[in-house]
Amino acid sequence: MEIVCLDLEGVLVPEIWIAFAEASGIPELKKTTRDEPDYNKLMNYRLAILKEHGLGLKEIQDTIARIDPMPGAKEFLDELRSLTQVIIISDTFTQFAKPLMEKLGWPTIFCNTLEVAESGEITGFKMRIEKSKYTTVKALQSIGYDTIASGDSYNDLGMIKASKAGFLFRSTEQIKKDNPELPAFETYEELLAAIKAVL
Predict the structure, then answer these.
(1) Is residue 178 domain-resident?
(2) Could you tell me the CA-to-CA distances from 13 to 97, 158, 164 in Å, in that order?
(3) Active site residue 146
């Protein structure tokens, strides 16, 4: 039995922090897991910038409300879900994900949680589990699933390499160069065909 594990940002929806960096006019917030492999370091960097500018959860949620899935993402996901089980495994947060899941037709997502003060200030974050994508894939395998995984960033490599089949999707030239053994695709049609071939 197979289960497909997909990253969210950069694969199905645009990067939330890049959209917020553009909306807020703070270019430092454009840094993502494509640039910084250490997620804790990246999030602490982001939270320090938010605090410095007096920005909280509401401002980010206002931006997220205007983000649409990438063209073709919902159709890709719908077709994939008609063929097999799909879980989105993301390092984003429940407080960010809900409006995006609605636009994608409510797929299952495993993600993390923000710690938010009554004032709306984001004071911290709680990761569901360490190395969440890799750990989740290994847990699914332990209960009898063969995993097929796809993502675009450094933090996706663990789950991609640990899976029966793994694919880079719209990744960076550096990540593709560093991982030449991983098939890399740019379109949903290519990715769907590759997944179907291993189902």
Answers:
(1) yes
(2) 10, 21, 25
(3) no
